[in-house]
Amino acid sequence: MVIAAVLCSIAVGLPLGIAAYYFRRGRKVILFISDVLQTIPSLALLGIIMILVGAGKLTVIIGLTLYSLLPIVRNTYLGLSEVDPGVKEAARGMGMSRFYRLFKVELPLAFPVLFTGIRIATVNAIGTTVFAASVGGGGLGSVIYKGIRVMNMKWILFGTLSLMIMAIIFDIVMGIIEKRLNNKFSGPAIRKVAE
N or C, which end of the chain has less CB nearby within 10 Å? Predict the structure, then answer.
């Protein structure tokens, strides 16, 4: 559920972050909606979606996707905004089109900030998935809820520790991937402009 939700939030959040970067008129609206979605308590958001879609994993995936948008949208916008204006100007002076500049220069240079947003969204989604059990989504949250109902500390500890370990592993693995991809993309983007 977490992987599906994060992939969906990347698919939605990246274009929204790019749109916020390019279109000043829509920027405030996009960032405001992302902020509002993040401020709604996760259980309340899942409850609203359950009324519309019904109970189950789809409700959880939609809820996690909406809840994960803010870090991805904001970090995409910030990463693109923080690209060195000199590099942008050099790329523009070479006659690169807006889209070519975006995909070959700006996005690769913005990648570290962008990927940090994806990391934050993933770790947050793991923590929020606990509430999946309350809307019929199952998962480790159901183990924790059962443990609370029957006062079984082993079940509660198992569910809680499993979620903590998952969050830590995902964060470490994504940190390693971030370093490798950063080395892979940032250097070629600068060389592309320098050539």
Answer: C
Alpha carbon dihedral 135, 136, 141, 146, in 10-degree steps, equals 110
* DSSP-derived secondary structure letter, 95: T
Structure tokens at 125: 């989604």
Q: Is the pLDDT of residue 52 over 80?
A: yes
Residue found under tokens 């947003």: 117
Spell out the domain ranges in the chain: 2-194
DSSP, res 115: H
Is residue 46 scored above 90 in pLDDT?
Answer: no
Rounded to the nearest integer, the mean pLDDT of the chain is 85
Mean pLDDT for the stretch of residues 97-105: 85
Distances (CA, A) of 155 to 2, 65, 159, 191: 21, 28, 6, 54
Report yes or no: 59 and 129 within 8 Å, Cβ to Cβ. no
Top-level CATH class of 2-194? Answer: mainly alpha
The pLDDT value recorded for residue 185 is 59
* Cβ atoms 30, 73 nearer than 8 A: yes
> What would you report as the CA-atom Rg of the chain, rounded to the nearest whole angstrom?
20
Closest C-alpha to 117, from 80, 176, 175, 74: 74
The model's pLDDT over 117-143, given as tens digits with 9 standing for 90+, comes to 999 999 888 888 888 877 877 777 778
